[in-house]
Each structure stands twice: as C-alpha cells, then as structure tokens.
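Teaching assistant's notes for section 4

Start the section by putting this record on the projector. Ask students to predict, before seeing the second block, whether ABC transporter ATP-binding protein will look compact or extended. Collect guesses on the board.
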Amino acid sequence: MLELIRLHKTFGQKTVADHISLTVPAGRLLAVLGASGGGKTTLLHMAAGLVRPDSGQIRIGGRDVTGIPPERRRTGLMFQDYALFPHLTVAQNLAFGPAMHGIPAAERRIRITRILADIGLENEAQRMPDSLSGGEQQRAALARAMLIEPELLLLDEPYSNLDSHRRHDLRTLTLAQIRHRNIPAVLVTHDPAEALQMADEIALMQNGRIIQQGAPAELLHRPASAAAARLLGLANVSPDRYIPPQAVRPSENGTPSRVSRILLHPQHSQIIVQHPEWGSLHMPLPPSAAVPETGSLLNISVDRTAVVIFDPAA
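Reveal the predicted structure now:
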C-alpha cells in the first residue's frame, strides 16, 4: 500500500501540493488527473523520492520512506520519453537498475529473460533503443521498471507519444503487471479518457489541491463542481450545473432546438443543439438513427431529475 499523508510543497510563492493525502492499495491504480501546471508531476516526484516534501509523510507497505533517497527504494518509474540509455542494448538497459540494487548477475539474467518473454520482447534483447518502435521502447521501459521487483509503480504520462493501438496494448500490459505483482501504482495524466480507462480510482487535481476523488463511474455520474466536470472532459457543463448527455433526448413534446453541429464517431456520435432554456447541449446520436441536417430543428426534452446541481461551496 502507498500512503501519502498531508504532503505539502511550495516553490517560491507557489503552492504545488497543498497538504495532500492519498492512499493506494496493493494491486490497484490511482490516476491523478489534472491540467499542466496543476502539481500532479511534483506529487509523483515526491512519491518517488525525487523531490522532498516541505512537510508530510510517504509510506510504502507501512514503512516511512519520506527521507530515503530514490536509489534506495524499490520504485518502478515510467516516463513519457522512455528514458532508455541510447548507447546500451535492451538487455543492458534492463540490467542497469538491478545491478545498482546489488542483484547478482546470474539472477539479473534470469529476470531479464523472464520479463522479456512476459512483455513480448524476447527477440529484441540485443537491439539498440533507436531501432525499436515507440511501443517497443515503452515495453522495454515497463520491463526495466518491473525488473527490480518494485514495491510501487509510478507512471508519468508514459503513453502520450504512442498511437491509439499501441496505447491500448501498453495500458493493458501495464495493468496486467500491476495485478500480477500486487503492487500499488499511480498514473499522472491530463487525459480523462486514459484515467477513466485505467484507474480503479481517480483524484482530480487543480492548483495543488485534490478537488474530488472517487471511482471513475462515481465521478462521471456526479462531479462535485464545474472544475471537476471539466477536468473529466464532460460536456453540458455550466458554473452551476451539469446535464448528462444521456438526459438530453428527442421528444414529441420537447422544445424545438436547432442543430448546430454533428460530431461523428465510430462508437458514440453526438449532436449539438441550441436549446432555448438550457443553451448549447450535447446529446447522443444512436447508431441506427438518421443523422439530422445542420440547421434543422429537433424537439428536445431534458430529464431534469438527472441534472447535477453543484454545491456553491464546492
């Protein structure tokens, strides 16, 4: 288990972590979702031991590691830029971390052979990083993180440079390693889709503070504020309320609303209409439905019982 207990950090006059407390059980992934500059990477670096908090405590498996340097921790790290040594082969890159942790050469070779087979790089051990695809480089980075048999895995937007197919594969592979090894993991990302697809729990971070935390379905169903809803990438958000797109639907007795735009997508196309009372609204377009023309009128109703009204104090 990872426990971050009232972590506080300032750089000059800017507070980047405001007494943050988070807990991640073994075998689970917490996504810290926020915009650039919100403090999420600093939070990850504190968890890794790369940045010392001004106050607070970091515990891994019940042990206080706050003052322990990163090289003396068993923490796996994955970064956006892969961070592979360009002058070393894949196998040599993988051996570097275990060697620094004092793992004997024979044991290193056994671990490398096993992990390369697990992640599908068993034939690439002698290749140089620049001869690998982006997906292969990130697989190698995952293998390197796992070789030290980490107590904690930290992910700093590691999939952002990959195409959608490779992103999906690497996310699946990473989650499989977390579950198999039963270790806590933290992912920091600005991509709500990535957080929603990977995380067991999401912490929404803004200006150094956690503004809402919960299971993905819980956050989608009831965001606590407009800021939380926007971090989640939700549509139909105003300062005082959120209207789920599923609550907007065609109805014979609905209000005439003009179609302003069609957003086509293989799985979930949407229509944007201008409603006289509610303003601009996104609503789903069922796969079997006819696509209306832009500028045409549709009779639209809103299920008022589904509208989320934000607490002004949130």
